[in-house]
Amino acid sequence: MKKSYVYFLTNKNKTVIYIGVTSNLLKRVYQHKTKSYKGFTQKYNCDILVYFEEFEDINQAISREKQLKSGNRKRKEALINLENPNWSDLSDGWLFYFD
């Protein structure tokens, strides 16, 4: 079964938190970093991966995404701070190779 992910991106000033869901985290982060698509993350320069969760099923990931999006910023920050207190880019050092 294919893994799925819920992830948080922020900008360099950490003023915005974007929440997304994907079945290919590496590819999706690459798309955000290269600004491949017009939209929220491009407009607000969200390209720093600060948090993610892995799921066995896309439906679980979508459900979790909805739950996280319904929460306030303080709760989102608490999740990030628990796993990544420095808000480091978790994708640093990832190699972006695609077919």
UniProtKB/TrEMBL annotation:
SUPFAM superfamilies: GIY-YIG endonuclease. One of its GO terms (molecular function) is endonuclease activity. Gene3D superfamilies: GIY-YIG endonuclease. CDD domains: GIY-YIG_unchar_3. Keywords: Endonuclease, Hydrolase, Nuclease. PROSITE patterns: GIY_YIG (PS50164). Residues 2-78 form the GIY-YIG domain. Belongs to the UPF0213 family. This is Putative endonuclease. It comes from Mariniflexile fucanivorans. The lineage of its organism: Bacteria, Pseudomonadati, Bacteroidota, Flavobacteriia, Flavobacteriales.
